[in-house]
Amino acid sequence: MVDYITRDGVALLQVNNPPVNALSHNVRAEIKNGLDEAGQDKQIKAIVISGKRSFIAGADITEFKSGSYSEWPTIIDLCDLIESSGKPVVAAIKGFALGGGHEIAISCHYRIAHEKSKFGFPEVDIGILPAAGGTQRFPRLVGLEAALDLIPSGRHIGAAQAFKLGIVDKVVRGDAVEEAVKFAKSIAGEPLVDRRTSQRPVMGAENAVSLRDAAVKLAMKKKKGMIAPIHCIKAVMGSLLPFEQGMEIEASEGFMLFTSGQMGALQYAFFAQRAAPKWSLPCGASFKTVKGRPIRNAAVIGAGTMGTGIAMAMLNAGIPVTLVEQDRKFLDKGVSLLKLLYAGSVSLRKITQDQCDAILSKLNTAVGYKSLTNVDLVIEAVYENMALKKQIFAELDRICPPETFLWTNTSALDIDEIASATRRPDKVLGTHFFVPAYHMKLLENVRGKLTSAETVASAQMFGTRIGKIPVVVGNCHGFVGNRMLHKYAHESDFLIEEGCWPEDVDMVAENFGLPLGPFKVRDLS
Ligand SMILES: CC/C=C\C/C=C/C(=O)SCCNC(=O)CCNC(=O)[C@H](O)C(C)(C)COP(=O)(O)OP(=O)(O)OC[C@H]1O[C@@H](n2cnc3c(N)ncnc32)[C@H](O)[C@@H]1OP(=O)(O)O
């Protein structure tokens, strides 16, 4: 799990724990053994820590449930061992240095990073904080302001910004490991006193109160209902005390999170989101046995809210889209809406004007279905009317090539009945997008009784490609999402009957952490 390689007086400890080099107990034990071996070997003058393929994505999240994250050596022990090493330790970073991996990196005496590497403390999003000294060392490396920005937000940054902030000592284009080995040789024997992060003062301490208040305000706005950001902020503020005392604050803030229900729920969600795109059918088919067909181009029928949203989701992923309406007036309205949304993204600087132009260059429009003779996929997104949908599917079936997938955006209608209007029921599937379709992550892929495994595989692949979390569901009224939503909507309605105002119900739901309250969602639909 950790290869120990010696190179001309340098010991290279290379973590090899696929898929993401998480710091599982065995990995930690082997890093410790490697550090001990390198420390004892008189021939070794410096140490490089790196990862095969990528650096280290953090603690092994499964260990927070099992409890083995706290078994010796912990990540805290490793960080202390690395920092106090008498021989210089250099982190060679490519790929991800996240969470505990980032904490290991900032405990090293130097950091050499590939230009495409990424840094971050995503702990906040799984309900915890950087509990291996990260809340204490990071402010000492980058200052209070940047630490209060990056730790409670969990935001990833690239190598260039990491260099600007002082996280990284050198950014390289070539092989970060080779550069780090070369660098380690060049600094062997130099004093390390000012290279130990825990010994540094925290910059920006004079503005501590205003920086803290601003961070709390932002966290309450951006991460509504989450307790971890506030504990992160409290722990970072502890860095204004001497290091040992700050570590105690980190531990006590961490303890509250490690024993919270939110930690369990968010870590459940972490694994559930990764499990959802995997699928298997009663016949045994899964991604292991069936390959999906990539979608090279697509058409969307209907330029209303759902149709334009779905078209945007595809355009954002670089898939050329033809937006189709039966009437030029509706088509123009849809295109104007779509352009307005992209113009908004430009003015908010989410994309540049050039990127906007490139995206829109992949948008075509058509009145009627005649031009759909060369598309891999058609997604129908007209209003929920079975007779209309069947009529459209019958017509599409006549015009589109036999291999074209015909999918329907419906939140409740029977996929089998829609498929019965075609001669290709195996290629018919429901794609239930949620409003706004260009933004919401969930995509229910509804399998009818004749939908083929290849169609399911293609829809799951497609969902991931357009940045959704696709999940295969059965064909029943309301599928899964709306069956859950209906209960939630009923309870919200009862509250109105009992005298609450819709805006009050929305406010409570939003303060709990939902992006939009139930009545605002209904206004959008
Ligand atoms: C005593 C001190 C205690 C604590 C201090 C430290 C705390 C931490 O470090 S908490 C962990 C912080 N790190 C993260 O939260 C990173 C989580 N991972 C990711 O964000 C992503 O996986 C990635 C950006 C690193 C890579 O993304 P991608 O290439 O899209 O891969 P997947 O997300 O699909 O993941 C692939 C595979 O790996 C599993 N996995 C990912 N990270 C972890 C992890 N940290 N621990 C355990 N397992 C992890 C993920 O579930 C996928 O598994 P399957 O293929 O089985 O689905």
TrEMBL record:
<feature type="domain" description="3-hydroxyacyl-CoA dehydrogenase NAD binding">
    <location>
        <begin position="298"/>
        <end position="475"/>
    </location>
</feature>
<feature type="domain" description="3-hydroxyacyl-CoA dehydrogenase C-terminal">
    <location>
        <begin position="478"/>
        <end position="524"/>
    </location>
</feature>
<dbReference type="GO" id="GO:0004300">
    <property type="term" value="F:enoyl-CoA hydratase activity"/>
</dbReference>
<dbReference type="InterPro" id="IPR029045">
    <property type="entry name" value="ClpP/crotonase-like_dom_sf"/>
</dbReference>
<keyword id="KW-0511">Multifunctional enzyme</keyword>
<dbReference type="Pfam" id="PF00725">
    <property type="entry name" value="3HCDH"/>
</dbReference>
<keyword id="KW-0520">NAD</keyword>
<keyword id="KW-0456">Lyase</keyword>
<keyword id="KW-0413">Isomerase</keyword>
<dbReference type="GO" id="GO:0070403">
    <property type="term" value="F:NAD+ binding"/>
</dbReference>
<keyword id="KW-0576">Peroxisome</keyword>
<keyword id="KW-0560">Oxidoreductase</keyword>
<keyword id="KW-0276">Fatty acid metabolism</keyword>
<dbReference type="InterPro" id="IPR006108">
    <property type="entry name" value="3HC_DH_C"/>
</dbReference>
<dbReference type="InterPro" id="IPR036291">
    <property type="entry name" value="NAD(P)-bd_dom_sf"/>
</dbReference>
<dbReference type="GO" id="GO:0004165">
    <property type="term" value="F:delta(3)-delta(2)-enoyl-CoA isomerase activity"/>
</dbReference>
<dbReference type="InterPro" id="IPR001753">
    <property type="entry name" value="Enoyl-CoA_hydra/iso"/>
</dbReference>
<dbReference type="GO" id="GO:0005777">
    <property type="term" value="C:peroxisome"/>
</dbReference>
<protein>
    <recommendedName>
        <fullName>Peroxisomal bifunctional enzyme</fullName>
        <ecNumber>1.1.1.35</ecNumber>
        <ecNumber>5.3.3.8</ecNumber>
    </recommendedName>
</protein>
<dbReference type="GO" id="GO:0003857">
    <property type="term" value="F:(3S)-3-hydroxyacyl-CoA dehydrogenase (NAD+) activity"/>
</dbReference>
<dbReference type="Pfam" id="PF02737">
    <property type="entry name" value="3HCDH_N"/>
</dbReference>
<comment type="pathway">
    <text>Lipid metabolism; fatty acid beta-oxidation.</text>
</comment>
<dbReference type="GO" id="GO:0006635">
    <property type="term" value="P:fatty acid beta-oxidation"/>
</dbReference>
<dbReference type="InterPro" id="IPR006176">
    <property type="entry name" value="3-OHacyl-CoA_DH_NAD-bd"/>
</dbReference>
<comment type="subunit">
    <text>Monomer.</text>
</comment>
<dbReference type="InterPro" id="IPR008927">
    <property type="entry name" value="6-PGluconate_DH-like_C_sf"/>
</dbReference>
<dbReference type="Pfam" id="PF00378">
    <property type="entry name" value="ECH_1"/>
</dbReference>
<keyword id="KW-0443">Lipid metabolism</keyword>
<comment type="similarity">
    <text>In the C-terminal section; belongs to the 3-hydroxyacyl-CoA dehydrogenase family.</text>
</comment>
